[in-house]
Amino acid sequence: MMTANQYWDTYRNEYLAAVSATLSVFMVVFTSAWSSPALPKLMSDDSPVPITTDEGSWIVAIQAIGAVFGPIIAALTVDQIGRKLALLGTVVPIVVGWILIGVGNRVEFLYVARFLFGISYGTVYAVAPIYLGEIASTAIRGTAGTLITVLDQTACMVMYSMGPYLEYRTLAWVSLFAPGLFLLSFIWMPETPAHLLATNREEEAEKNLSWLRRTKSVSDELIDLKASIQSSSEERGSVMELFAPAYRNNIRILAIIIFSMQMTGLLAILGYAQTIFEKISTNLKPEEMSVVLGAVQMVAIFFPAVLVDRMGRRPLLLISTAGVTIGLTVCSLSFAINYASGTDDLGWLAFTSLMLYIVSFGLGLSTVTFAILCEIFPKNIRAYATAAFAMASALIVSVVAKLFQLALDEVGPYLPFAIFATCGAVAWVLIYRYIPETKGRTLDEIQLIVRGKERKV
């Protein structure tokens, strides 16, 4: 067994590239989390850009609508210009969006900014899993995949911690540090060896692989990688290929991942976090509860980052989904009892159960799912698969985000939380029945498992 120093010495460059790439996730999630502290400012009496409740729900939903177009851009470019340039290109819409928020004095400026944010959001979530899956060794691929969520939750914590306390326009200008940080770090990172081999740049691929593995002895891995790429290229790679009978199980796993992540409501809850907390009576102010939520998220996601390559994917997913369902159920019941009694005596229970939900989601659904997404599709359709994931997720989130606000206003928070809890229970059954264990398997071995040609663990 490797010592800590040996482990770091072996995988250091892979982790540097992975962290740098997933700073793109930090950049786009920072824009998504912005709505939580921004909406109360926008709907206050001294709002810098006065908006209605309906306009506020559109501000949240439009980013998800924009995210539908990001995967289309990713699918058209990721195999043409490469994974690295596709990710770097997402900086431009983010910078333009923050400038529009910083100078805009009408809600239309916010709509355009959020739409641009969505384009980058959808592109990043389509390309980043591909990049991570292609640079990481088998031994750390699961951990590398969880970095998406580590940076995701870090972005939420930073925004929730500083957003409520900064003036509205100041927050926009300060937020430009996120794309700057990503650009300045990732511009030095290598393109993936798999993409370079696929575009007949073998010498560059060997150089990049040697840097990533921190050894000159990469000839065997290059041979295996070329064989895998050759095998994939012999199969027709297209959007329609996703629906070929050979990939039926892959698509089923993808659909379960999308359902489990998006129909349990995380992005809607995070987008309206401070608004939800205004309906909960505790000793903490809504903005303070948002900070606690961000901190809890941040702590929670480090456990799967450590455990995913030791404990495995399935156990973490099942534990995560069970905790999510329990947390949502208790939260819904707390809101329902308070609504029926006309009091807010159970505010502490609603807040505590919401923290259980956040911890549970971070334990698996928001981390392990990306590790699986990096693994379950062969290279010839991987770009289309991740694009499909991002597009389907964006469509669901846009509808959920819009309806969530309507449910809060017209019925009460207990209804959407009850629906999310029901979806969580269904997700647990689907994960138990259909998601295989992929820990410690090569990408080719995983394809055999998914297709049912090798025993599932």
Outline of the structure:
With 457 residues, the protein is mainly alpha-helical.
User: Which CATH top level class fits?
Assistant: Mainly Alpha
- Seen as an oligomer or otherwise, the chain set is single chain
The description of the largest β-sheet is: none
Domain module tally: 1
Summed over residues and divided by their number, the pLDDT gives a mean of: 83
Per CATH, the architecture is Up-down Bundle
Low-pLDDT residue spans: none
Query: Compute the gyration radius: what is it?
Result: 22 Å
The total count of strands amounts to: 0
From the 3D structure, determine the CATH topology: Growth Hormone, Chain: A
The H-and-E topology, N to C, reads as HHHHHHHHHHHHHHHHHHHHHHH
Helix coverage percent: over 70%
Descriptors:
457 residues, single chain
What does this structure look like?
- The chain is an all-alpha fold.
- The protein has a single domain (14-450), classed as MFS general substrate transporter like domains (Growth Hormone, Chain: A, Up-down Bundle), CATH 1.20.1250.
- The protein contains 23 helices and no strands.
- It has helices at 4-33, 35-42, 53-77, 83-88, 91-103, 107-135, 141-162, 168-174, 177-186, 193-198, 202-213, 219-233, 248-262, 266-271, 273-277, 286-300, 302-307, 313-341, 347-365, 368-373, 379-410, 414-434, 443-450.
- The two termini are 23 Å apart.
- The mean pLDDT is 83.
